[in-house]
């Protein structure tokens, strides 16, 4: 059976939604919207922080497993297991922050991912205690079982990232999809002041915001999870005009598309725009953000 069939089944388990709505209430109470949650998402880094944070516990636990094979009873293995347990906590918190702004299917997979990791962590706690007197095989055996749980959890983590696309930049393709030449978006007078309007620019949807005789044109699919940004609201945040995503509240600065508030971590691509003879025109930037030739 292909692994994807199993992971698809997990994502289809609607009964998990009742559990998830309870967990969601707790997570949003403990981690309300704000700078702490944004930091856990990785807004400051411009990249999800959870994948980086799990490296430390995974590295510690794997290293301990190697020592268990090469140097049974090693004190260093106990230190590694203890460090792994301690560093798993902040990694888990950042994971729950991302989970709280995910689709239902992603949350179902995420909950099972967290359960497997929790089981793995429990095994490592047993392992840590059992290694106190450097005797017996309980420490290394429970560590080995913990590693199996963590591997299963990591598989679902990969599923979440690569197949269910929680974490990747959903606007990454903007620079590749054009339009490479100036594209007419209609008369300036058709756009109301400060109200987001959706238009087709070649084969991409864009959101247009008018400010007097000026316009800002952004890729319409939110970089977090592809929400239609033209259904969002314009807000002033820290002195900047911003567009707020209707789904999870990511807030993008209109001047350059930068993220002011998460959960998005990647900026929203902004097209180059101009008003010519009373009509709005736009063209894509290249990947590096400079005009396409
Ligand atoms: S889709 Fe989640 S913040 Fe836009």
Automatic annotation (TrEMBL):
PROSITE patterns: RIESKE. Keywords: 2Fe-2S, Dioxygenase, Iron, Iron-sulfur, Metal-binding, Oxidoreductase. One of its GO terms (molecular function) is dioxygenase activity. This is Ferredoxin subunit of nitrite reductase or a ring-hydroxylating dioxygenase. Its cofactor is [2Fe-2S] cluster. Belongs to the bacterial ring-hydroxylating dioxygenase ferredoxin component family. SUPFAM superfamilies: ISP domain, MFS general substrate transporter. The keyword Zinc does not apply. Residues 183-282 form the Rieske domain. It comes from Actinoalloteichus caeruleus DSM 43889. It comes from the Bacteria. InterPro entries: DUF2231_TM, MFS_trans_sf, Rieske_2Fe-2S, Rieske_2Fe-2S_sf.
